[in-house]
Amino acid sequence: MGNIYHNKTAQWIVYAVFFAILAVIPIKIDDSFLLNQLATYGVYGMLALSISLCWGFGGILNLGQGIAFGLGAYGMAMTMQMQSQDASNPIPPFMLNNSLDHLPLLWQPFQNTTAGLILSVAVPTLFCAVFGGIMFRARVSGPFFAIMTLAMLSAFYTIIIDRQPYTGGVNGLTPPSAFQFAGVEVDPYSPTAYWVVFCFLMGATVVAKLITQSSFGLVTQAIRDDAERVRFLGYSVAGYETVIYTVAGLIAAIAGCCWVMLVQYVSPAQLDVSFSLSMVIWAAIGGRHSLLGSIFGAFIIQGAQSYLGDTFLATWLLILGGFFIIVVRFLPNGLASLLESGLGLLAAKRRSSSAAVERNGDANPMPAE
Amino acid sequence: MAGLLEIHNLSKSFDATKVINDFSLEVVEGTLCCLVGPNGAGKTTTLDLITGRIKPTSGKIIFAGEDITAKHEHVIARAGIGRKFQVPAVLRDLTVRQNLEVSYSRQTNPFWNLFKFRNAGLKEKLDEIATLAGLKDRLGERAGILSHGETQWLEIGMVLMQEPRLLLMDEPIAGMTEGEIEKTARIFKDLRKTATLIVVEHDMGFVREIADVVTVMHMGSLLAQGTIKQVESDPRVRDVYLGEQEAA
């Protein structure tokens, strides 16, 4: 009997229970403000999930996950902004303030909601595929790749602030009305919005879990362990790294879309370095080797920030930092590893007691002889 | 029979130092070739060049009629060359079973592998290799906790899981007991039926036992080649290598 933590069936059961609990929430809660807040945690959960997939399973530390998230968010905000414009008034107000007299080419596809949604997800994903492809083929890895993602993130951040007539600059975009899809308005404070996020979070988690259990997942874990060795087994390390990095980017892009749907707002802050770092911290505290652990990490850190952050104000960052140091020092694999070693101890105990029973069982027939 | 692996006038320099100097070698399919020579003769570097870990300065490497010179490591591995490293390189964080599973690399395309959850033929192969390597009871263990001898066996097992046409074994018996060395010799001789082997080894007793052809390298060049008897009676070989070993 091994550690039940590593039992696939047990893992799927825990996943099912986890999502069942999340599904009960909108039924039990009618505080629409709270529901909206919990839905944003779902978005953070998706981000932590994408970090866990990329870093925990693929071994690629990505400090620039805000790129995919931010590009997705901007795409969604542009789509929603254009939903509020019509033929009589085709240009968003902030452009007029910046003395643009026609809709820029960049914005034109977003006049169509479907095209806008597709672009919101496709552009960041494509970016990850190209950027990752170039980096991984050149065998940029470890801290060097992390630094490259950080540099890329800062570049996007600067461009968005600098191109104010096209991006809204520091102010960002604030679409005036809720997202409409197929004639239905998705009120961000409604259970519908919660369900949308719930479905995407669950879908992404199930897909990510299946990926880690596939042959692909095994190869990426081998690459995390020793990329050099894996090459001599016939696997193209760059190919695998690019795919896992891109899948993580896709999840983050979807999270970006969901986030803007919930808050009707996007600004360069979503591409700020500190936000991308917090995603890594969520995964690190929750346990980057566990998808569910990472999601949970995002929930507790963001939850604590919302509630304790008001109480402690500036001290909150100190508390968070201290907590992070403690986890890294004593639980390098995060809170999930606490569960893993706990269940491991339990299994070992059971094993030794059943071994003792067997020994006794062996000993018993002896006197009868 | 044509050579499965042909190395033509291979040279490799690091800055001004010539590590491999105009080295040529032909390995016939279904034979076991032992590569011997004093430390620094360039044996491991030759393996590095064959497997694409480093690129040659000049020269050509032909495998099964295909030019594999300076190709990427994974391309060469896919062509059918498997390698065991001098310092055993296993995936330490994965279990023994996962190490063997990932080595069964028939499908290497990342997209196909995304949708692959069961590997046809894997179970039989894994059972066979695990039994052969004596790791049947250790499949669930993390590879990092294995003893040195077990790690050697695991890596040999990994190379066998790859089912390569050409196996490169860099000091496979280092750290093994007498009994294990005998077993290794038996396995290698068996493998010759289906594959070709190049073994780098210092233990002349082991070389005597298994080699069809012995190639002696010295200062990055070919010093002598032939059966073990021919090589052992070669005065130059005695001079630079064997004499030195007997003295030790």
Automatic annotation (TrEMBL), chain A:
GO terms for molecular function: branched-chain amino acid transmembrane transporter activity. It is found in: Cell membrane. It is a multi-pass membrane protein. Keywords: Cell membrane, Membrane, Transmembrane, Transmembrane helix. It comes from the Bacteria. The chain crosses the membrane at residues 12-29, 41-61, 115-136, 143-161, 193-211, 232-262, 274-301, 313-331. CDD domains: TM_PBP1_LivM_like. The keyword Cell membrane applies. GO terms for cellular component: plasma membrane. It holds the Pfam family BPD_transp_2. Its main location: membrane. NCBIfam families: urea_trans_UrtC. This is Urea ABC transporter permease subunit UrtC. It comes from Hansschlegelia plantiphila.
From TrEMBL, chain B:
NCBIfam families: urea_trans_UrtD. SUPFAM superfamilies: P-loop containing nucleoside triphosphate hydrolases (SSF52540). InterPro entries: AAA+_ATPase, ABC_AA/LPS_Transport, ABC_transporter-like_ATP-bd, ABC_transptr_urea_ATP-bd_UrtD, P-loop_NTPase. It comes from Hansschlegelia plantiphila. Gene3D superfamilies: P-loop containing nucleotide triphosphate hydrolases. This is ABC transporter ATP-binding protein. The lineage of its organism: Bacteria, Pseudomonadati, Pseudomonadota, Alphaproteobacteria, Hyphomicrobiales. Residues 5-244 form the ABC transporter domain. GO terms for cellular component: plasma membrane. PROSITE patterns: ABC_TRANSPORTER_2 (PS50893). Keywords: ATP-binding, Nucleotide-binding, Transport.
